[in-house]
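(Fold this chain)
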Amino acid sequence: PFTLSQLAALYHNPELEVAETFVVQFVETELRGGDVLRHPLYELLTSYQRARTKLTVNNKDLGTLKQECRDHQSLLWSLDKCVVTEQGECQDGNPVEASHEFQTAHFNKSSASNLSRCLCSIRDLITESFALNAYTCEVIKLQVDDYIQNLLSEFSFLPHNAPVSLVCEMVPLVNSQTGQDLREELRRAISVLFTFQRRPLRDEGFVADVRTWLG
Protein backbone atom coordinates (compact mmCIF):
# COMPACT_ATOMS: atom_id res chain seq x y z
CA PRO A 1 0.00 0.00 0.00
CA PHE A 2 1.02 3.60 -0.58
CA THR A 3 2.26 5.76 2.23
CA LEU A 4 0.41 8.96 3.09
CA SER A 5 3.06 11.06 1.34
CA GLN A 6 2.78 8.92 -1.82
CA LEU A 7 -1.00 9.22 -1.77
CA ALA A 8 -0.72 12.98 -1.35
CA ALA A 9 1.57 13.17 -4.39
CA LEU A 10 -0.81 11.15 -6.57
CA TYR A 11 -4.13 12.43 -5.35
CA HIS A 12 -5.08 15.63 -3.58
CA ASN A 13 -7.70 15.02 -0.91
CA PRO A 14 -8.24 17.68 1.79
CA GLU A 15 -9.82 15.11 4.10
CA LEU A 16 -6.73 12.89 3.86
CA GLU A 17 -4.60 15.70 5.25
CA VAL A 18 -6.66 15.87 8.42
CA ALA A 19 -7.23 12.11 8.77
CA GLU A 20 -5.10 11.92 11.90
CA THR A 21 -7.16 14.69 13.48
CA PHE A 22 -10.33 12.77 12.71
CA VAL A 23 -8.89 9.63 14.30
CA VAL A 24 -8.00 11.47 17.50
CA GLN A 25 -11.40 13.14 17.58
CA PHE A 26 -13.15 9.79 17.04
CA VAL A 27 -11.27 8.17 19.92
CA GLU A 28 -12.07 11.06 22.24
CA THR A 29 -15.73 11.49 21.36
CA GLU A 30 -16.84 7.96 20.42
CA LEU A 31 -14.73 5.59 22.49
CA ARG A 32 -14.07 7.69 25.59
CA GLY A 33 -17.42 9.43 25.73
CA GLY A 34 -16.47 13.08 25.57
CA ASP A 35 -19.38 15.33 24.68
CA VAL A 36 -21.61 12.34 23.91
CA LEU A 37 -22.38 11.72 27.58
CA ARG A 38 -23.58 15.31 27.98
CA HIS A 39 -25.67 15.38 24.82
CA PRO A 40 -29.44 15.90 25.33
CA LEU A 41 -30.22 12.93 23.07
CA TYR A 42 -27.97 10.75 25.23
CA GLU A 43 -29.91 11.81 28.32
CA LEU A 44 -33.22 11.02 26.60
CA LEU A 45 -32.04 7.58 25.48
CA THR A 46 -30.65 6.80 28.92
CA SER A 47 -33.98 7.72 30.50
CA TYR A 48 -35.81 5.65 27.89
CA GLN A 49 -33.58 2.65 28.58
CA ARG A 50 -34.12 2.93 32.34
CA ALA A 51 -37.89 3.19 31.92
CA ARG A 52 -37.89 0.12 29.66
CA THR A 53 -35.81 -1.78 32.23
CA LYS A 54 -38.34 -0.96 34.94
CA LEU A 55 -41.18 -1.98 32.63
CA THR A 56 -39.42 -5.28 31.89
CA VAL A 57 -39.17 -5.97 35.62
CA ASN A 58 -42.86 -5.11 35.98
CA ASN A 59 -43.76 -7.56 33.20
CA LYS A 60 -41.69 -10.29 34.84
CA ASP A 61 -43.30 -9.68 38.24
CA LEU A 62 -46.73 -9.59 36.62
CA GLY A 63 -46.12 -12.93 34.93
CA THR A 64 -45.03 -14.47 38.24
CA LEU A 65 -48.15 -13.19 40.01
CA LYS A 66 -50.42 -14.46 37.24
CA GLN A 67 -48.88 -17.92 37.53
CA GLU A 68 -49.38 -17.87 41.30
CA CYS A 69 -53.02 -16.93 40.74
CA ARG A 70 -53.49 -19.88 38.41
CA ASP A 71 -51.86 -22.20 40.94
CA HIS A 72 -54.07 -21.00 43.81
CA GLN A 73 -57.15 -21.07 41.59
CA SER A 74 -56.54 -24.72 40.74
CA LEU A 75 -56.56 -25.51 44.49
CA LEU A 76 -59.62 -23.42 45.29
CA TRP A 77 -62.02 -26.34 45.07
CA SER A 78 -61.36 -30.02 45.70
CA LEU A 79 -63.75 -32.73 44.50
CA ASP A 80 -64.30 -35.99 46.39
CA LYS A 81 -66.10 -39.01 45.04
CA CYS A 82 -68.83 -40.37 47.30
CA VAL A 83 -70.95 -43.51 47.07
CA VAL A 84 -74.19 -44.12 48.94
CA THR A 85 -75.41 -47.70 49.19
CA GLU A 86 -78.79 -48.79 50.45
CA GLN A 87 -80.08 -52.25 51.04
CA GLY A 88 -83.62 -53.51 51.13
CA GLU A 89 -85.90 -56.42 50.55
CA CYS A 90 -88.23 -57.04 47.67
CA GLN A 91 -91.82 -58.07 48.16
CA ASP A 92 -90.80 -61.58 47.26
CA GLY A 93 -88.35 -61.54 50.14
CA ASN A 94 -85.15 -61.34 48.10
CA PRO A 95 -82.56 -58.80 49.28
CA VAL A 96 -81.70 -55.89 46.96
CA GLU A 97 -78.94 -53.31 47.02
CA ALA A 98 -78.64 -49.97 45.20
CA SER A 99 -75.69 -47.58 44.98
CA HIS A 100 -75.52 -43.92 43.94
CA GLU A 101 -72.24 -42.23 43.08
CA PHE A 102 -71.75 -38.45 43.24
CA GLN A 103 -69.11 -35.82 43.89
CA THR A 104 -68.82 -33.30 46.68
CA ALA A 105 -66.91 -30.01 46.41
CA HIS A 106 -64.88 -28.60 49.28
CA PHE A 107 -63.89 -24.93 49.36
CA ASN A 108 -60.26 -24.28 50.34
CA LYS A 109 -60.23 -21.09 52.41
CA SER A 110 -56.43 -20.96 52.50
CA SER A 111 -56.18 -21.02 48.70
CA ALA A 112 -58.93 -18.39 48.48
CA SER A 113 -56.97 -16.12 50.80
CA ASN A 114 -53.78 -16.61 48.77
CA LEU A 115 -55.67 -15.97 45.53
CA SER A 116 -57.12 -12.76 46.92
CA ARG A 117 -53.66 -11.62 48.01
CA CYS A 118 -52.22 -12.28 44.53
CA LEU A 119 -55.05 -10.42 42.81
CA CYS A 120 -54.50 -7.43 45.09
CA SER A 121 -50.79 -7.52 44.29
CA ILE A 122 -51.56 -7.53 40.55
CA ARG A 123 -53.91 -4.58 40.98
CA ASP A 124 -51.31 -2.60 42.92
CA LEU A 125 -48.54 -3.44 40.45
CA ILE A 126 -50.58 -2.36 37.43
CA THR A 127 -52.00 0.83 38.92
CA GLU A 128 -48.93 2.05 40.82
CA SER A 129 -45.91 0.94 38.82
CA PHE A 130 -46.68 -0.75 35.49
CA ALA A 131 -48.94 2.01 34.15
CA LEU A 132 -46.48 4.75 35.16
CA ASN A 133 -43.47 3.04 33.56
CA ALA A 134 -45.41 2.23 30.39
CA TYR A 135 -46.52 5.86 30.13
CA THR A 136 -42.97 7.09 30.77
CA CYS A 137 -41.63 4.85 28.00
CA GLU A 138 -44.14 6.19 25.49
CA VAL A 139 -43.54 9.83 26.44
CA ILE A 140 -39.74 9.59 26.23
CA LYS A 141 -39.93 7.66 22.95
CA LEU A 142 -42.06 10.45 21.49
CA GLN A 143 -39.53 12.99 22.74
CA VAL A 144 -36.71 11.12 20.98
CA ASP A 145 -38.80 10.91 17.80
CA ASP A 146 -39.48 14.63 17.96
CA TYR A 147 -35.82 15.49 18.58
CA ILE A 148 -34.63 13.42 15.61
CA GLN A 149 -37.36 14.63 13.27
CA ASN A 150 -36.62 18.27 14.10
CA LEU A 151 -32.94 17.66 13.42
CA LEU A 152 -33.58 15.86 10.14
CA SER A 153 -35.96 18.57 8.97
CA GLU A 154 -32.97 20.93 8.74
CA PHE A 155 -31.61 18.67 5.97
CA SER A 156 -34.88 18.07 4.13
CA PHE A 157 -33.57 19.95 1.07
CA LEU A 158 -30.84 17.35 0.47
CA PRO A 159 -31.47 14.75 -2.27
CA HIS A 160 -31.47 11.07 -1.35
CA ASN A 161 -28.27 10.51 -3.34
CA ALA A 162 -26.32 13.28 -1.61
CA PRO A 163 -22.64 12.37 -1.02
CA VAL A 164 -21.72 10.90 2.34
CA SER A 165 -18.92 13.43 2.80
CA LEU A 166 -21.22 16.43 3.14
CA VAL A 167 -19.70 19.78 2.20
CA CYS A 168 -20.60 22.51 4.67
CA GLU A 169 -21.41 25.00 1.91
CA MET A 170 -24.28 22.77 0.77
CA VAL A 171 -26.16 23.51 3.99
CA PRO A 172 -27.77 26.97 4.04
CA LEU A 173 -27.96 29.21 7.09
CA VAL A 174 -30.89 28.00 9.23
CA ASN A 175 -32.01 29.68 12.45
CA SER A 176 -28.67 31.55 12.66
CA GLN A 177 -26.79 28.21 12.49
CA THR A 178 -24.14 27.68 9.85
CA GLY A 179 -23.91 24.58 7.71
CA GLN A 180 -20.98 23.37 9.77
CA ASP A 181 -22.95 23.79 13.00
CA LEU A 182 -25.87 21.76 11.64
CA ARG A 183 -23.60 19.06 10.31
CA GLU A 184 -21.81 18.82 13.64
CA GLU A 185 -25.13 18.55 15.49
CA LEU A 186 -26.23 15.74 13.17
CA ARG A 187 -22.90 13.98 13.62
CA ARG A 188 -23.17 14.14 17.41
CA ALA A 189 -26.71 12.76 17.33
CA ILE A 190 -25.57 9.83 15.16
CA SER A 191 -22.64 9.27 17.52
CA VAL A 192 -25.03 9.06 20.47
CA LEU A 193 -27.18 6.46 18.69
CA PHE A 194 -24.15 4.36 17.77
CA THR A 195 -22.92 4.57 21.38
CA PHE A 196 -25.94 2.53 22.44
CA GLN A 197 -25.58 0.17 19.47
CA ARG A 198 -22.07 -0.77 20.58
CA ARG A 199 -23.24 -1.78 24.04
CA PRO A 200 -24.08 -5.44 24.81
CA LEU A 201 -27.74 -4.81 25.64
CA ARG A 202 -30.28 -7.54 26.34
CA ASP A 203 -33.29 -5.34 25.63
CA GLU A 204 -33.95 -6.28 22.00
CA GLY A 205 -36.82 -3.80 21.79
CA PHE A 206 -34.57 -0.91 22.79
CA VAL A 207 -31.89 -1.99 20.31
CA ALA A 208 -34.52 -2.20 17.55
CA ASP A 209 -35.79 1.29 18.38
CA VAL A 210 -32.27 2.75 18.19
CA ARG A 211 -31.70 1.06 14.82
CA THR A 212 -34.98 2.51 13.58
CA TRP A 213 -33.85 6.00 14.58
CA LEU A 214 -30.54 5.42 12.81
CA GLY A 215 -32.40 4.37 9.68
